[in-house]
């Protein structure tokens, strides 16, 4: 979502006449879009901003701004650490950035005193509708689309409700217009984004249609997007387990464009800790969702989020997480060491786990994940996988794309295949990638 927000701000600035540069040493303005999900993310952003603020001594016209979650979380308090920051803009005010920059530049061009830092972290009704503009690279074939922002879940470890506000959804017709325009520009795969993307439309004004035909608003949106000509694949992130009702599970069996790849956040395999985290499911109900999805699509790929070292986590709790992690056999996972977020209920819970224990548990899960990923990739050697060709890989030696299961594949190809769905015969696998040869006879016309 931060990537998508940054892209939308960049598109707004381009429309106002600003130009993106390739290297930070060449910029007149630097905007740091920040994250607050963990303390380390904030510390990195503060360190980077402090380093860039030193440029002002050499170039007084240089403008430094901090956007996003850390700006929302800390507001004016950031100036105690970073007094030279010119602009602090929260998560509901991204669309105001071009105007604020115009004002700052005009004041400096007129020789006026720099004045106070501009700070705007206020809530704004309808702000979720402003993240709609895109900066597409030439022949870009994938795109993110924000459909919902904010969260009402109140997990005890999470600062997102504070930094992103209450749950808010965009009108379905507006999303359709955006996605059709992307498809017309050559985008073949769209990933829908939201803090709790499966909650889309639950609190919208048009709730009389909330379950039209027995489908939730999110599934209705998937059905409509499925009909867009030119669009080949649909994905979404990040959902919540409680969003996987029967209609969404069934959608995987009847919507071919919906990729068989699910991000299903777990956080913990211990029922006791799930209650402490205020996660409204149990390990049993979570496994029932996994089983239902695998019945709908036996070749389903699963990724997840797991927190180790949550306050009060015992060896027995961690053993239950490890057991469930092995049972689901995740293909990918984001494994986090619990990070205290001030103002959240978990920050003051007893039984804070020592850092050394967190690190040990973190490494155990990472090793298991590596084994799982290597085994799944190795199982694909000798098969033919449908790959959406995205372009040259980072080294420029081959082309790359992703399977429907979101595995990266490297192979010999030509530019004409960008945007095509190409069957690739997998010949080799590593833990993180696949390698193969196109079976060109089956390339989509």
Mean pLDDT across the residues is 94
Major sheet strand order: 13-14-15-17-16
Radius of gyration: 23 Å
Classify the beta-strand content into a percent band: 15-25%
- Name of the CATH class of the largest domain: Alpha Beta
Ranges where pLDDT stays below 50 over 5 or more residues in a row are none
In summary, what is this structure?
The protein has 445 residues and is of the alpha/beta class.
How does this model look, in words?
The protein has a 5-stranded mixed β-barrel with strand order 13-14-15-17-16. A 4-stranded parallel β-sheet has the order 1-2-3-4, sandwiched between helices. It is built from 14 helices and 17 strands. The longest helix has 25 residues, at 355-379. It has helices at residues 2-15, 39-53, 55-58, 69-74, 78-81, 97-109, 160-164, 172-184, 217-226, 246-254, 271-277, 283-296, 315-328, 355-379; strands spanning 29-34, 63-68, 87-89, 118-120, 142-146, 148-149, 168-169, 189-193, 233-237, 261-263, 301-308, 332-337, 384-392, 399-403, 408-411, 421-429, 434-438. The protein has 4 domains: 2-120, Methylthiotransferase, N-terminal domain (Rossmann fold, 3-Layer(aba) Sandwich); 136-259, Transcription Regulator spoIIAA, CATH 3.30.750; 296-379, Transcription Regulator spoIIAA (2-Layer Sandwich), CATH 3.30.750; 384-442, Nucleic acid-binding proteins (OB fold (Dihydrolipoamide Acetyltransferase, E2P), Beta Barrel). It starts with a helix and ends in a 7-residue tail after the last strand. With 445 residues, the chain is of the alpha/beta class.
């Amino acid at each position: 979502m931060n990537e998508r927000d940054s892209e939308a701000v960049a598109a707004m600035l381009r429309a106002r006449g600003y130009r993106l540069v390739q290297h930070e040493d060449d910029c007149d303005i630097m905007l740091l879009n920040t994250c607050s999900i963990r303390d380390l993310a904030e510390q990195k952003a503060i360190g980077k901003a402090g380093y860039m603020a030193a440029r002002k001594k050499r170039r007084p016209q240089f403008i430094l701004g901090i956007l996003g979650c850390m700006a929302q979380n800390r507001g004016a308090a950031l100036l105690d650490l970073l007094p030279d920051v010119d602009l602090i803009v929260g998560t509901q005010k991204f669309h105001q950035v071009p105007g604020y920059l115009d004002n700052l530049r005009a004041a400096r061009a007129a020789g006026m005193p720099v004045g106070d830092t501009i700070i705007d972290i206020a809530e704004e009704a309808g702000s979720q509708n402003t993240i709609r503009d895109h900066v597409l690279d030439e022949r870009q074939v994938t795109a993110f689309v924000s459909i919902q922002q904010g969260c009402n879940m109140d997990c005890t470890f999470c600062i997102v409700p504070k930094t992103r506000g209450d749950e808010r959804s965009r009108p379905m017709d507006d999303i359709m217009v955006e996605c059709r325009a992307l498809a017309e520009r050559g985008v073949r795969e769209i990933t829908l984004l939201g803090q709790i993307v499966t909650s889309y439309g639950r609190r919208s004004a048009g709730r009389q249609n909330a379950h039209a035909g027995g489908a939730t608003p999110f599934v209705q949106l998937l059905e409509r997007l499925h009909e867009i000509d030119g669009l080949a694949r649909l994905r979404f992130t990040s959902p919540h387990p409680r969003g996987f009702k029967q209609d969404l599970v069934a959608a995987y069996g009847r919507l071919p464009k919906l990729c068989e790849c699910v991000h299903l956040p777990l956080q913990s395999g211990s029922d006791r800790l799930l209650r402490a985290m205020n996660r409204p499911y149990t390990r049993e109900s979570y496994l029932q969702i996994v089983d239902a999805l695998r019945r709908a699509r036996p070749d389903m790929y699963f990724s997840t989020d797991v927190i180790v070292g949550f306050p009060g986590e015992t060896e027995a709790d961690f053993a239950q997480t490890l057991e469930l992690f092995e049972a689901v056999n995740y293909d990918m996972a984001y494994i986090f060491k619990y990070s205290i977020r001030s103002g959240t209920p978990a920050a003051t819970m007893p039984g804070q786990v020592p850092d050394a224990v967190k690190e040990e548990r973190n490494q155990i899960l990472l090793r298991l994940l590596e084994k799982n990923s290597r085994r799944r990739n190795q199982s694909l050697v000798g098969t033919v996988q449908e790959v959406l060709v995205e372009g040259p890989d980072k080294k420029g030696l081959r082309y790359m794309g992703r399977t429907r299961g979101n595995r990266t594949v490297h192979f010999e190809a030509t530019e004409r295949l960008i945007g095509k769905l190409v069957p690739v015969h997998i010949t080799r696998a590593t833990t993180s990638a696949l390698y193969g040869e196109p079976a060109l006879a089956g390339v989509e016309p």
